[in-house]
Design a protein that fits this description.
1322 residues; alpha/beta; 36 helices; 17% strand
């Protein structure tokens, strides 16, 4: 693929420069025409360059010198833009300040210098322009067309992919279903996701072939030629049809053909990219006019644009959005193409690398198949390693790249520039729309549009381009947060590719990626030491952007103490950044003050210091260009700069989460301010509420704090909230904690004067002190209000008429202590045609301690879905409407009076009371958690739920439950019964009963539960059985092997009366068995343990069971990989005559009081070894450990630890983790001392080594060590003079009283550990 877009990005850049050069304000600065000639030359030269960009973009594919030309051109244009910014800055400065004769003389000199720089830029641009003939550049408009697709399949790989089979079957089901109308089903997804392949699978399915008489396949691509497409369809329907070029004749001919069709018609429009509404509906005309036969016509559209999917969707179907394949599915495709003639199992190294490569495909089937083909003739491990560590985009494979290239090519030049900028985002980074649009604005991507006598704000332009990138799948909605977005990894690679060296991400220690032409830098999860190194690498740079994208790892208790270190590093960093900086984000750093360091960035437009520690912030007064200031979540911030009114370009001020005492004076001078999150009123000083009236452009959300400081109601009226029609959300807050007294009449007058505009969507009022609300609260004229919250209005004895709000969907009312009755006044004067609360979905009441009665209004709440009443325990009488058809959630805590309402709620999905939680599951069945089983059954009866509607049952503390009627709950999958002290009978067996739905059964703390019924528990699909603290239980269910044939996990703990296992053994399906605290349990009968057993854990106090360990026959269990055995006092050598399987991977030996030696012979695959509390154990036979061992943990084994101190563990070259816990005293003064450790070690933990005093330089050989934890080493006082291994990223020091003070900030060892990213001390 082409190394795209030097040209595309520049073609978006240049219009902004042209607009600035043409602006009257800009030209006015050059009085006397001193520089007008040079500016005209610059304009002409830039226009000449602009005409060559499309051709240069294409030719850089094969001509590196053209790519180099574009990069040099982009540098020159950046320089021109920097110069124009400086000129504009000087113009703005002269406008704001009175100019003396001295300043005029200085200004003349400055303009002379500007002229020199401008001439140099012109010379450079002209030099580049003169090279166009040599490079063969000319004006060019388009890329070559894409090769058409056909209905034929190259292979059937995808037909075996589970997720695509489900997609195919769902589409076919929709296409074959009867319909009275035309059906158009769009398949939407990003390039390379498999849309065409899926359409081919559907098209060639035998079910489709049998039902559809004609199946034209049309490749559409970027140009939707209605005439051509109609003609192609007509040729398939009737090959002998006339070859008209007239659309009307073609469509009439097509209508005639429809009338004679015997079977259905399926049309596939592949790669449909046009969202032209008129063309689409012109195309559909004949299909919509065929009367009763139009249900016979089905159309499938594949597209990479969400807007096209929305446009074309027709009939009773849904858009089919294709998601990425799983890693397993990608590996299936890659493996099939990479190992055409071989078996991947014969190449274990390649298979492991291939699985890693499949993950890098990030769910794109095209990438998996293409890379598989690339590797099909390659068996060199190094080649596979190279590909596994590369970005797919770096492979320069035309198949993969062209899939995304087409999507990119048809973006507008400005959308291309916006997308390329997102190369700053790390893979997987979640971003919000506002966050990105503000960055684009600050970079100067947009020019405020003019047209139709109105201006389109830059935020609106940015939102349009953001939405364009979403609809074309460049941005995808995050799965974790609906309000955030992510880029697919391949699009992230594309953004990084097209931005080239101009955008760079600082990740880890890669400051070497910053080169001379780099303009934009981001960093994420970078420690202070790396930032210091970056500072040294970035002197004399011309960066425009330096942004933090997410918080650094928090440093626990050291975060506060490391403030001085942070300030030092950040100040040093800012000193290295150049004057052209436009965007600076240092969010989440614990900084004290940066005002002096920031003052030099006169072109700064965006400043984000969120999460900083400073108490006040002094914005440099010369930041005339500053547009966006974000001080969000600065918890100590109490004051903004007093001269803030000079920031006349400021349009966005985010101060959420601060503790400001007041706003600076003259806030009304910030005329361009569009977003102001909060406005704090001071008691005697700062801006008064009247200043808000001057801010006419405010939009979005606004919170006004400390309204108790408003002295006159007319001042509140001058805020003119009713005139701010772009406000969407408004919060009005009083602070009752600092009010000495309340004047209810005055507060009502203030609130009356704060009436907002009628189009407000969200309103919240907190701690209002009036006795009643003004008439505008709840007035029906607020027809757009969707959400309303009234909280802490403790003087009000009644609620306003909120039922009159026609669009209200969410209502929250809390802390109305004086309200005793909620009655007619609450519903308002609604008519029979207009029901009270006609749109309300969620209603919440809380902390209404005086509330005693709720009077209903018939017909109210017709669409109410959720009702929550909490902490209102004095409510005695509840009368809700007779029918609540949409109520799905009733959450009423201890207010049991609401139970009667359930019979009027046929759609109930969730009930929460103090004793019962009932909720509907995705399966359509219910989950029941109950503390009063009888009350739960009563609720179910009220809402008409039968016992067989329950899928999950959890019962606790129900002492009246003596026998559980399991036979009533035929659909239950999960059953947990706990602390039911009188339960003694589980169920009464009946002939031919099989609880086939039961999947998991847990019985805990039921002391009278004696046994399962005679004959056993018939639950053939039970996979998990847990028995805990059933002190009377004597036996397990009979016939377990036959009746519990699916059991996978069996856990038996604290059952002291349990005596034996079933004679016929445990189920053959069992893979995990855990037993503990069962002193009467006899040894396993011969053949009891199944061959599929993978994990066996025999815990404390199982003396009889362990006594027979020699007869367990573990060597016969081929699947066993994990064994944990505890408390075996009579064993001196392990395993002794008890043979262990060679498959063992993990071994835990705990509490063998007389154990003296361990032999690992035959355990060549052992990777994890844990030895605990074996006081006599001194050695491992042969003096060696298994060669594959990765983790060694030794606790409370003083002799063994002392012996290990003289061992050479370097032979265990795979060892990654070592834990040594002395506990009972180990004679170890220095570590590692004579103990030789392998360099592969990544984690080292030293715990409870009471005699340890020194860590010595032997640690420096651990070049891979990442984590070091030292705990309860009370006498440890010294670290190696040479320091710790530089590879360490996490140091944890806990309860080391002598060492800890030396490691704190300013301590003796602080210089040795300050570079470690994460240091934690208690």
């Amino acid at each position: 693929m082409a190394e795209l877009v030097g040209g595309a990005i520049l073609s978006a850049f240049l219009p902004v420069l042209f607009e600035r050069l043409a602006s009257p304000e800009f030209r006015k600065f050059f009085d006397g025409q001193i520089l007008q000639g040079e500016l005209e030359k610059l304009n002409i030269t830039l226009n000449s360059v602009n005409g060559l960009l499309t051709d240069a973009e294409d030719k850089q594919i094969t001509k590196p010198n053209v790519k180099n030309w574009l990069d040099h051109l982009r540098e020159a244009i950046y320089e021109a833009d920097d110069l124009l910014d400086e000129i504009e800055y000087k113009a703005l400065k002269s406008k704001l300040k009175a100019t003396s004769w001295m300043e005029k003389a200085t200004g003349f000199i400055s303009k002379y210098q500007i002229r020199q720089r401008l001439e140099a830029i012109l010379k450079r641009l002209q030099h580049l322009l003169d090279q166009k003939d040599t490079l063969g550049l000319a004006e060019k408009l388009s890329l070559p067309p894409k090769t058409p697709t056909t209905s034929l399949r190259n292979d059937d790989d995808d037909s075996e992919i589970d997720s695509r089979v489900r997609d195919k079957d769902a589409i076919i089901e929709s296409l074959l279903s009867d319909s009275d109308s035309l059906v158009v089903m769009p398949i939407w997804g990003m390039g390379g996701i498999g849309k065409t392949t899926l359409a081919q699978l559907v098209y060639n399915d035998t079910r489709i072939e049998a039902q559809f008489q004609h199946r034209p396949w049309i490749f559409v691509s970027e140009v939707f030629d209605v005439t051509r497409v109609t003609k192609d369809i007509l040729r398939v329907v009737n090959p002998e049809s006339s070859n008209y070029d007239n659309l009307d004749l073609l469509q009439r001919q097509l209508l005639k053909e429809f009338s004679s069709m015997e079977r259905k018609l399926l049309i596939v429009l592949d790669d449909f990219l046009s969202d032209n509404t008129r063309d689409w509906y012109d195309f559909l005309k004949p299909f919509l006019q065929v009367g009763a036969r139009k249900g016979m016509i089905k159309i499938v559209v594949t597209t990479r644009h969400e807007s096209v999917a929305s446009l074309t969707l027709t009939g009773p179907v849904e858009v089919r959005h294709l998601n990425e394949l799983t890693d397993r599915e990608c590996w299936y495709l890659l493996e099939k193409h990479a190992f055409v003639k071989d078996d991947s199992n014969a190449y274990p190294q390649l298979k492991a690398l291939g699985e890693k490569i499949a993950k890098n495909c990030r769910g794109l089937p095209l990438a998996a198949k293409t890379i598989g083909r690339l590797l099909s003739a390659e068996r060199d491990v190094q080649k596979w390693k190279q590909i596994s560590s590369s970005d797919i985009w770096d492979l320069k494979n035309e198949d993969i790249n062209s899939a995304l290239r087409l999507s990119y090519h048809y973006l507008s030049s400005l959308s291309k520039r916006c997308f390329a900028y997102c190369a700053l985002f790390p893979k997987g980074y979640e971003f919000g729309k506002e966050e990105v649009v503000l960055l684009w604005m600050a970079e100067g991507f947009f020019v405020q549009a003019q047209g139709n006598n109105s201006k389109k704000e830059m935020e609106e332009i940015g939102n349009d381009h953001f939405n364009d990138l979403v609809t074309r799948s460049f941005f995808q909605r995050s799965k974790g947060s609906k309000s955030h977005f992510v880029m697919h990894d391949l699009f992230n690679d594309l953004a990084k590719f097209v931005s080239g060296e101009f955008c760079s991400r600082l990740e880890g220690n890669n400051s070497s990626n910053i080169v001379k032409r780099t303009r934009h830098v981001s960093y994420a999860d970078v420690d202070l030491d790396s930032l210091q190194k970056f500072s040294g690498a970035c002197k004399d740079n011309v960066l425009r952007t330096f942004i933090s994208l997410k918080p650094l790892e928090r440093r626990s208790t050291l975060k506060r103490r490391s403030t001085l270190k942070t300030d030092e590093v950040i100040h040093g960093l800012l000193q290295t950044l150049g004057r052209p900086l436009r965007v600076l984000s240092l969010s989440q750093y614990q900084m004290v003050d940066l005002s002096d360091s920031i003052s030099k960035f006169k072109l700064l437009r965006y400043l984000n210091l969120s999460g900083a520690s400073f108490k006040s912030f002094s914005t440099p007064t010369k930041l005339y260009f500053l547009q966006i200031l974000i001080l969000r979540e600065c918890p100590n911030l109490v004051a903004l700069p007093s001269n803030m009114s000079k920031l006349i370009k400021l349009c966005h001020l985010d101060i959420r989460g601060t503790k400001l005492l007041e706003m600076p004076p003259q806030m009304g001078e910030l005329k361009k301010l569009r977003k102001l999150t909060d406005f704090f009123l001071g008691e005697q000083s700062g801006s008064s509420i009247k200043e808000l009236g001057k801010l006419q452009e405010l939009q979005g959300e606004l919170c006004i704090w400390n309204l108790q400081h408003v002295e006159k109601a007319k001042d509140a009226a001058e805020a003119n909230l009713c005139g701010k029609e772009k406000l969407v959300k408004l919060e009005l807050r009083w602070d009752r904690d600092i009010r000495a007294s309340i004047d209810p009449t005055h507060e009502k007058s203030v609130l009356e004067s704060l009436e907002p505009h009628k189009g407000l969507d969200y309103l919240s009022i907190y701690d209002y002190g009036g006795t009643r609300f003004p008439d505008w609260v709840g007035h029906s004229s607020f027809s757009c209000m969707v959400s309303l919250e009234l909280t802490g209005c403790g003087n009000c004895s009644s609620l306003p008429p909120l039922g009159q709000l026609p669009s209200l969907e969410y209502l929250t009312i809390g802390f109305f202590y004086k309200v005793e009755v909620v009655g007619r006044e609450f519903y308002g004067s609604c008519t029979s045609m207009k029901k009270p609360f006609g749109s309300l979905k969620v209603l919440r009441f809380s902390y209404m301690r005086g509330w005693r009665e709720w009077i209903s209004c018939e017909g109210a709440f017709p669409v109410l879905q959720e009702l929550h009443v909490r902490r209102s325990n004095n409510l005695e009488r509840v009368a809700l409407p007779g029918h609540l058809p949409c109520l799905t959630t009733l959450d009423v805590g201890g207010c049991q009076q609401f139970a009667a309402a359930l019979q009027r709620a046929p759609a109930i999905l969730r009930v929460i009371t103090a004793d019962v939680q009932l909720k509907k599951l995705p399966s359509g069945l219910y989950s029941l958690i109950s503390y009063r089983f009888e009350f739960a059954m009563e609720i179910m009866e009220r809402i008409g739920l039968l016992p067989n509607a329950l899928e999950e049952i959890v019962i606790y503390d129900s002492y009246s439950l003596g026998s559980f009627p399991l036979k009533l709950f035929s659909e239950v999958k999960t059953l947990k019964v706990g602390r039911c002290g009188n339960l003694d009978d589980f169920f009464t067996p009946e002939a031919n009963v099989n609880f086939t739905s039961l999947d998991s059964l847990e019985i805990a703390e039921c002391r009278y539960f004696v046994s399962f019924p005679e004959g056993g528990l018939p639950a053939s699909n039970l996979t998990r059985l847990s028995l805990y603290d059933c002190s009377s239980l004597k036996s397990l269910p009979q016939n377990m092997r036959s009746l519990l044939s699916s059991l996978v996990d069996l856990s038996i703990m604290r059952c002291p009366a349990l005596e034996s296992f079933p004679k016929d053994g445990l189920p053959s399906s069992l893979s995990s068995l855990s037993i503990g605290y069962c002193p009467q349990l006899e040894p396993f009968p011969k053949g009891c343990l199944p061959e599929k057993l993978e994990s066996l854990d025999v815990g404390h106090d199982c003396n009889k069971l362990i006594a027979g360990h020699m007869q367990w026959d573990l060597q016969t269990l081929p699947s066993l990989v994990k064994i944990a055995i505890e408390s075996c006092d009579d064993v001196e050598a392990f395993p002794g005559e008890m043979l262990l399987p060679s498959t063992l991977i993990s071994l835990v030996i705990n509490g063998f009081q007389n154990l003296e030696s361990v032999d690992f012979k035959g355990l060549q695959d052992l990777k994890n070894l844990t030895v605990v509390n074996c006081p006599k154990l001194e050695l491992f036979l042969g003096g060696v450990l298994p060669s594959q061992l990765e983790s060694l943990r030794i606790y409370q084994c003083s002799k063994l630890i002392a012996h290990l101190m003289h061992w050479d563990l370097r032979a265990v070259s795979s060892l990654l983790e070592l834990t040594i816990d002395g506990y009972d005293g180990v004679d170890m003064v220095s570590f590692p001392g004579k103990m030789l450790l392998p360099s592969t070690l990544t984690s080292l933990k030293l715990v409870s080594l009471e005699n340890l005093k020194f860590l010595d330089k032997g640690l420096l050989h651990l070049t891979s060590l990442k984590k070091l934890r030292i705990a309860q080493c009370y006498n440890l006082q010294s670290l190696p003079e040479e320091g710790l291994p530089s590879s360490i990223t996490s140091l944890d020091i806990v309860v080391c009283r002598l060492l800890q003070p030396k490691c704190e900030l300013g301590g003796e060892y602080w210089p040795l550990i300050s570079q470690i990213p994460q240091v934690m001390m208690d």
